[in-house]
Every structure is written in C-alpha cells, then in structure tokens.
Amino acid sequence: MRPVARRAAGLLAIALLGAAVLVAVLSGTSSASPMRIQITIHYSHYDPSRITVPHGVPVTFVVVNTDPIDHEWIVGDAALQQRHRTGTEPVHNARPTEITIPALTTRETTITFDKPGVLQYICHLPRHEEYGMVGWLTVT
Amino acid sequence: MRRLSTVAATAVVALLFTAGPAFACGGLIGPNGAVNLLRTTTLAAYHDGVEHYVTAFQFAGGGGQFGSIVPLPGIPTKVERGGDWTLQRLIRETDPVPQAGVRLEAAAASSAQVILQVRIDALDITVLKGGGKEVGTWAKDHGFRLPPDAPEVLDFYANRSPIFLAAVFDADAARARGQSIGDGTPVHITIPTANPWVPLRILALGKTGSERVDADVYLLNDRQPTLLPDPNANGLSLQVSEPASASLLKDLRSDKGMGWIPQNAWLSKIRIDAAASDLRFDLAIDASGRGQPSLRDAGLAPFGPMQPPASWIGWVLLLAAVGLGIPVLGGAYLARMATRRMPPGAGA
Questions:
Q1: DSSP string covering chain A, please?
Q2: Among A24, B80, B194, B251, which one is most buried in terms of CB atoms within 10 A?
C-alpha cells in the first residue's frame, strides 16, 4: 500500500471511530432523558391534535399557551373526561395528567403511560371542548 | 359640506343569557354567569368624517359585573351618555307597534393601553388600544372570562383597528341606582374615521356554531348605500331600503346629542339571522359614494396584518423573473446546441 493510501485509510478509521463514539454518547443521553413533545395552543385548539407515544417510558409534554385566555390539558380515558365535564376544580396542578396553562404561559408535565391504549386530551373550561379543544393520544 | 354618510343601528333582539358562564354579550362576560343583560342595542352613525355609536344595555336582573366589548374603527374623541329614544325610534319606524294613544315621549326606555375611561350610570366604559393578546389580557386581568373563540375574534379586529371599547355593567350599582329590569343605559361614542363599518362578527362571540345570531342593522345614508357583503345573502336580508321619512329624521334630531341628523337621508334595514359559525364578516359601507365598499373593512380580506406592498411586489418580480428567465435561458441553450449540431455550411 502506498503511503498516501495508508494515510487516507488511517484518517477514515479515526473518523469512523469518532462517529461511533458520538453515536454511543448521544444514544446514552436520549435513553436517560424523557421524550419531549411540544403541544401549542393557538386560537383555542391543540397543535398537534394527534400524538403517539410508547408505553413504559417517561414522556414530557411541553404545553405552550399562546392565547390570552387560560386553558387546560387533561389527558385520560373516556371515564376521566366525563368526570371533568361536570367537575368544579378551578385549577389543576396536583396530577401530571391534569394541568392548567394560564394565558400566555408554558407548562411542562412528565407522564409514564403504563399500558397501550387510545386516550384523549381535552380542555374542560366552559365551551372549550365544544369549540374543538380536543386531541387524541395513542399509547403503543 | 357637512353631510351624513351613514347612520347604522344594530339592534340585537335576542341576546339571552343563561347561567352558563361562557355566554357572552358582544364579547365579555362576568365570572358569576348570572343572567342580567337581556339585550344590547347599538347605533353607529357616520357624519362628516365622524362615526357615532350609541349603545344601550338593558338591565335584566342578576348581580355582579357583566360587560361587552365593541371593536371600533378608530380612537374616540368623546364618550358620553346617549340620547333616550334614538334606538327605540328607529325600531318603531320599521317595526311599528300598533298602540293607539301612546305618545312619542313615552317611548323613552327606561396590558392594552387605556385611552379613555368614563362612568355612565352603572356602566364603566374603557377604551383600549392594543392587539388581540393585549386586549384579551386586559379583560382577563379585570375579571372577565373570555369565551374560547375570543383570541381569534380579537385578532380578527385588531389586525384592522386595534381600538376596542369595553363596557362593564355593574348590576349591583344599577340596582342601587333604582334601575328596574328592562331599563336601558345608552352610551354615545364619537369616532373620527375615514371609513365606517359595522361590527357583525363580534355578535357571534361566545356562541357555538349552530347558535343563531339575531339582529337588526339600520343604516341612514345620504344616498342609497353600497354594502359588502351582499345584504341579501349569508344570513342577511335587506328588509327596508327607502328615503327616510321627515318625521323619523326630526324625531332622531330632537334626541340628546343627535342634532347633527340631516334633513334628508336614505334608510335601510338589514335583518341578520345567521348561524354563529357563518357570521365571520362585518358590514362595510362605502361612504364616498363611489360604490366600492372595502373588502378589508368587511373582514373579507386575507386574515392577518396588511403587508407592505414592497414585500409582495418583490415576490411578484421574483416569480416573473423566474417565469421569464427559464424559457429564455432554455431557448438560448437549445439554440446553441442546435447550432453546434449543424453541419458546416448548413446555416442560411
């Protein structure tokens, strides 16, 4: 092998080794941190309104309220949503699946879904659900 | 020449409130949700470059504070107590009630920038300047619960005119003043502006798509007006279009603050009976006589702030350059290739 070709092969090997190390570091980081999903509320609608997440891993939802009015993000099954339709709790902070996002603010919540299924996220402030503040969350 | 270009009266004939806290009267609703504003009536008048609004709130019982928000085409110079019978007289002109022996006098019914604040009877009036977010935040900070469509509707108006009037009705103060159910408090707003328009979409605020908006709009113009959208479509129907009677104009002129009503005018009445989801426009009126009401004033221009002309002209030029450049360059290339392939001496 000529010296030039040998030098090129050496550089290629170093590059491949560096890339492998980088991939290993990044994959290690991502497995330690929760998946992050941003949901933007604009004109009283969720964007995106359909999300798919895996079960058994923590997922951080970053809910950005761009409206000058308060909103809610309450995720759960049909029974939970039905309870909230007649609920009287003015503000939600106690459970990670039920949060209030004041006007023009951002809230984060981290949830680990324990089993697959199809859930909904809804704002139960008066008339917000009727207006279209509904989203679907599929847990795989 | 002083002349009346437009007088418009919007009579919301069936703004009924239930205990549902998300119902709104033209924009805002108080936190306790009780029924107290039975009906809102608005008169918008345009005269010699000045638009006049007369809005009346009728007290229908209940307690606490309630309010309404009205988008305005410009900054008002004056907010004062309105006349006592102007709105009722307009309604009587087109929908006369056969009551023999009733005299006319008996018809008198009982984080944005704050530009102006006035107290009129049990009403606290605040004129605000700001975008949709600012006005919405101001309303929220002042204890009002905006319905879910408010962010979009406030932006709809703020993109054209960032001026809003918030009227807070203090039902407790009304009761303390001895106001009875059905009593109205008229407010007269004077707004210099080049182009009058009547806000219609705001009437659907807080209503779900299938709920109806039921209102009457009266117009008085120097001549038969040109309107946008078509007053006989989209839930609108033009029910009266004729010269205003001398008696109507005389009666209006004799009310408090209405001395500017001219000797002659054209009277129109537009009935609104539309699903809330369909009422996504305002009523633009051509005040110049050219017969060209503004798409923008009607809210029918593309949503969002108007862009500087240079921006779209630039895009047009770019597209034109690309559109013309490709054929020209392509043609030149093909011509060159053809020339190269020609055998020597084959040219003309």
A1: --HHHHHHHHHHHHHHHHHHHHHHHHHHHHHHSPEEEEEEEETTEEESSEEEE-TTSEEEEEEEE-SSS-EEEEEE-HHHHHHHHT---S---SBTTEEEE-TT-EEEEEEE--S-EEEEEE--STTHHHHT-EEEEEE-
A2: B251
